[in-house]
Amino acid sequence: MNIKVCGITQLKQLQQLDGMDIDFAGLIFHKGSPRYVGDKLPAKQVKDLDFDIRKVGVFVNAAFDDVMRTIDDYALDVVQLHGDETPYQCEELSEQIEVIKVFSIGDDKKDIDEMIADYDDVCDYYLFDTSVSGVKGGTGKKFDWKKLTKSKIEKPFFLSGGIELDDAIKLKTIKHPDFYGVDINSMFEKEPGVKDMAKILQFKLALKK
After folding, report:
1. Nearest to 122 by CA among 139, 148, 97
2. Given a cut of 70, is residue 106 above it in pLDDT?
3. What are phi and psi of 126, to 5 degrees?
4. Where are the strands (E) in 2-84, listed by range?
5. Which end of the chain is flanked by fewer CB atoms within 10 Å, N or C?
6. pLDDT above 60 for 110
7. Homologous superfamily of 2-208 in CATH?
8. For residues 18 and 194, what is the distance between their CA atoms, to the nearest angstrom?
9. Where are the domains of the chain?
10. Mean pLDDT of 33-44
């Protein structure tokens, strides 16, 4: 199972994640986020890094040209679209780079397979996060994971939303052929954008043993 640590704002912590063999690191380029990386990590420093960890740029309803410029400036490997992006916008970007499309899951009875149907051919991964009104991720809240096991999905997907250290055992019990990875963020922080690296290492060891 892959691990994505989202909301990285420090070069040292990005280096530490790479040294821990974490699979993905999320850099948030949405200015409304307390983990906005644009004024914290110099683009050239990130671009020049020779790391195995895959850098994911997180965007919310950003213009195509802005996303493409950021991809080049930071040498991003993947983009994550966390807003109301249309299938066309996803397709436009997927011709240039791998795309993760985020869907927010709430307490309503919306069918996940119906939510994602129009995106099946225009992105590479899905990410399912918790729906909280007015907030785009990093809420520390969980949704009902059983909704995923009842859905076909048929594309590699990440599970996000309130995942914490004690969830490692439960995560390993989720049976779905396309469950690709977990996305962790706020529950592994000392403060917004500053990760607790010891806790992340504990989580990795618990999840992968």
Report:
1. 97
2. yes
3. -110, 155
4. 2-6, 24-28, 54-59, 78-81
5. C
6. yes
7. Aldolase class I (3.20.20.70)
8. 16
9. 2-208
10. 95
Q: Are 4 and 161 within 8 A, CB to CB?
A: no
Give 49-62 pLDDT, tens digit per residue.
999 999 999 999 99
**pTM value?**
0.94
- What is the rounded CA–CA span in Å between residue 75 and residue 167? 32
Is residue 53 within 8 A of residue 22, CB to CB? The reply is: yes
Q: What DSSP element (H or E) covers 158?
A: strand 157-159
Element containing residue 33 per DSSP (H, E): none
pLDDT(134) > 90 = no
Of the candidates 53, 42, 60, 46, the one whose C-alpha atom is nearest the C-alpha of residue 18 is 53
- When pLDDT is cut at 50, 70 and 90, the band that residue 117 belongs to is very high
Tokens of 2: 């892959």
**Which of 61, 60, 96, 92 has its CA nearest to residue 77?**
96
For the chain, give the number of residues: 209
Q: How many CB atoms lie within 10 A of CB 185?
A: 26
- Phi then psi for residue 64, to 5 deg, are -55, -45
